[in-house]
Write the structure tokens for this entry.
Amino acid sequence: MSDELDDLKAALRALPTADPAARVRAMALAMENFDRLQGSTDPARSSDDRHPQAAPLNGVRRMFTYLTSRPALAATTSVAVLVIGVAVLLPVADLRIAPPAPQPEPTATAAPKALPAAPADSLARNEAPPADAAASSLAEAAPEAQALAAAPAPEAEIALSDEAGASEAAADTGYLAAEPSASAVAQDRAAPLPQGTEAYANAPANPVRITTEDPVSTFSIDVDTASFAVIRSSLGLGQLPAPEQVRVEEMVNYFPYAYPAPTPSEGFRPAISVMPTPWNPGTRLVTIGLQGALPAIADRPALNLVFLIDTSGSMEEPMKLGLLKQSLTMMLAELRPEDRIAIVTYAGSAGEVLPPTPASDRDAILAALDTLAAGGSTAGAEGLELAYRVAEGMARDGAVSRILLATDGDFNVGVSDPEGLEAYVAKKRDGGTYLSVLGFGRGNLDDAVMQSLAQNGNGTAAYIDTLAEARKVLVDQLTGALFPIADDVKIQVEWNPATVAEYRLIGYETRALRREDFNNDAVDAGEIGAGTQVTAIYEVTAPGSDALLNDPMRYGTAAAPVGTDELGHLKLRWKAPGTATSTLIETPITGTEPATEDTRFSAAIAGFGQLLQGSVYLNVWGWDEAIALALSARGADEFGYRIEAINLMRLAQSLDN
Amino acid sequence: MARVSPNVMLMDTPDETLASAAAQGDRTAFAVLIGRHYDRVFGLAFRLTGNRAEAEDLAQDICAALPAKLRHWRGEARFTTWLYRVVVNATHDLRRRQATRTRAAAGWGDWELARQDEIATQAATMDWLTEAMTRLTPELRDTVALVLGEEMTQVEAGQVLGLSEGTIAWRMSEVKKRLRALAREDAK
């Protein structure tokens, strides 16, 4: 056994032993319950028939006499309550290694207990969850609940009705569902258990599809960039990100690309390029880039911005609330006198901190930002509702209203029901208020909730880990982040079986749409902001190539129609913001579109993402190749984003051993 | 199984015999059994939670629930294996409840305040063990608590956690890897 393990073992073995008083209490309780279960207590024995070695039991027996039944009952109650309370299974890295606490009270364990900050590196790679253990413990819980709850105890009823009252109160806020339900338990038990208190939105990587079987690929665009910042933050901590933290499309879309600008009449323009796949000589990469129009900045509509700021205690860190204040101050310089700002906080310094104020009144806004302090307890649900109310109150003609939610991810709007929350946000979106999410800090970043809120709120989810990132998101790309130029942008590609036998969409796993949803304007999809770019990459394999992964069918498939050399046909649908019907753009993919520095760089980033995911499609292509490709396609890189990515690849390479 | 009379209830009666007797209502057998194992329950709970107060509460809850749980005792495994499983499951339940509580809106503010206090206290006394254990995922901690803390074999730990020996071996090598990374950082 190695030295490290020996040290750990010695430290674990050296933990202090049980407190005698606690031991006596627990044993007394055990005996009490034992007797209750038997239905009757053993008759008292005279002391002369006792075995000398049973003497310690006299002590236990004395305990019975002296202990009133109150603590025992209370503890029993707590067991009953806590068994009933087993509800939604959101596993958490809640392990605290604390020094011996002061003499603990024999409190019921159902009382609220403090949780530690989840360690940042509980993000480390996932492993198969012990589903069996979880299942069996649940199964065991049931009879126990019956047995213990059956014991008549007045305290039990009080405790239970309190519990019910709390659930009711929670249910009052509308979309909260705190009530445990059997189906929730069953569902969650089946779901893989994520590690730590961070939760990530992800789906298995897209498989290779066979064109003759499934020629049409449909997905929604994704303008989020949070995944890249999360990866950067993980690597900065000396940890490889877990595969589920990697969303390739968000990494690719993190970088600005110089795609041709659309004409003034178009919302945006697609740019296609085809190049040999860096990691597979037998396939080609088809890159679809969309460039959003950049309306003259002077013409931008006025903004109504509501900052919804999480001031829960966990935000009290320089890299959270401190960074947030600096970021918003920086952003203020970009706003105009006609823009208006309001600040709403949740958890803590309650409610509306700053009523709608013109952006020109810098002093008032800065003063309000300054007063923000972490700590306290206002339910986040109220915060969100208040933010929407404020935004609705600010609505005026020709202005864009947006809520910017800034949180460390414990977006605890009483969300035991993320779906209810999504529905709420989606409803408000239809009312014209957008919602974007800015994530700060690590440890309990709820990426999954951030994603779903931003997607449903027609906004972007960005993760801000440094002041430089705040600058990128809130200053350099502010216009794009705040002004949508096209809503519900969907991409559909029909591949030509004569030229493409197999294809694979890299990334966009969480954005897949059904084929029929493409033409259905009621189905929501992603937005493009002013002047922003979105990139999607397909890897395609020609018929007869050595790189085909699927064997031909023995009995053949429908013969591929001939007559065209096109690789496929690209269709895009988008809506002008605020309109209900979509516009269609179509363009063939001829296969002769040249690659550019931008598309080669995006391919390097796609390779980076797949290396982090441990993708099976990369063959022997590794870090050296990814770094070389990215370096060769670095371009002007005015802001240094690309060289930063290359350095991250180098870091990942040295960690990946 | 015949009722074990107190007169022959020697301290070297095997756990399994005591457990079967207790399951059938033998009070003395039950008393001897929990007297013998309370420290073990507390110890594992401590190693799993890393928190004394929590471990005491867990041990107490387990003791309280043990009479009912013993009704499911079938004598198919060693008593200690069975008991460890009870402790591990109770700890997992506790973690889940805490997670649920974290998510519930009601009382969350108090929870957060308490958490901040806790963090402040802990920060003052952070030591190597804390750092090492917080490096590990809950699954790895469970495994370490059993294999190193309780000195179980990988087979036994696998029985308690309901996993194969191979999984335990893999987890232990993962632990080693992370500790080595920690050592490297410390050296810097």
